[in-house]
Amino acid sequence: MTSPLLPPHAPRLGLGLAALGRPGYINLGHGDDLTDKTPQAMQIHAWHVLDTAWAAGIRYFDAARSYGRAEVFLGDWLRARGHTATVGSKWGYTYVADWRTDADTHEVKSHDLDTLERQWPETLAALGRAPDLYLIHSATLETGVLENRRVLSRLAELAGAGVRVGLSTSGPGQAHTVRRALEVTVDGVNPFSAVQATWNVLEPSVGAALAEAHAAGWSVVVKEAVANGRLTGRADLPPALAQVGHELNAGPDAVALAAALAQPWADVVLSGATTSEQLEGNLRALTLTGDFSALAGLAESPEAYWQTRARLAWN
User: Fold this and answer.
1) Given 3-state DSSP classes, what are the helix, strand and coil percentages for the chain, each rounded to the nearest 5?
2) Where would I find the H helices in 39-148?
């Protein structure tokens, strides 16, 4: 299966820069993966991982305004290397940690028009170009962004200018958010054509809604397929996942990513690797085929999953 987001023959695995653009993140063990957290050292480190991704054929890269300097790292790298790739970015969160891992607050969420109008030119400047996909960051029904006519009209303008606009989702109500977004219209047309959502074997509840989005012609990007490290061996592994990994001679991260890649509605599945070694392990997912039905019993209730995620420490 190919993806409309990717050039022919490119792997359907993409690279997300949430763990590469700022010194603190909630992935398990993230702090230990970065030996030098100064901005200059982190740019060098990010470029090394990006080079590894490019050499492996990866052509989809995901950033956001709240990922510290991720957009700058990515934009500078693309220009320095002369690469052309598909780039997704997001608006709606502002990074406020000031490069500290011990900050009380790392990012602030706001889905109003002022934030959109401020962050769109910031993204253009950081990337040095318009992103191919531009998403509302973690849209939920509670923020009211899908009912905000001023925001929707501005996004429709961007869509009319050739930017694919959409939303990313999070929280136990992901499916409801996706379905509401499918109903949005501005002057009789839905400006959205892409969605990025959390799907993994612990939290697959949004799957049916993503299938509906895919059937409607939307591009679907999967994030957090390894559950912020819970499915990588840095936490107690579910026995079923360990067994499938043993049978396939693959690490749990590769199995978890392969299960996401096996979903027929998934156009791109993001690796959130912090190191080149992690990325190389993730790439093993592209070679895994088989029956992942043994993992179906691992699903937690959405409420329980997101409560656990909320307790993960920034590190």
Assistant:
1) 40, 15, 40
2) 39-55, 70-81, 113-127
Give the residue from 207, 244, 240, 213 showing the smallest Cα distance to 225.
Answer: 207
First to last CA, the chain: 37
How crowded is residue 280: how many other Cβ atoms within 10 Å of its Cβ? 14
Assigned token pair, 123: 């993204």
Structural domain of residue 191, as residue ranges?
13-310
Within a 10 A sphere around the Cβ of 48, how many other Cβ atoms? 13
Pair 77, 45: CB distance under 8 Å: no
Short-list 272, 248, 53, 213, CA closest to 258: 248
User: Does the predicted TM-score (pTM) go above 0.85?
Assistant: yes
User: What CATH number has the domain bearing residue 61?
Assistant: 3.20.20.100
| pLDDT per position as a tens digit, 201-257 | 999 999 999 999 999 999 999 999 999 999 999 999 999 999 999 999 999 999 999
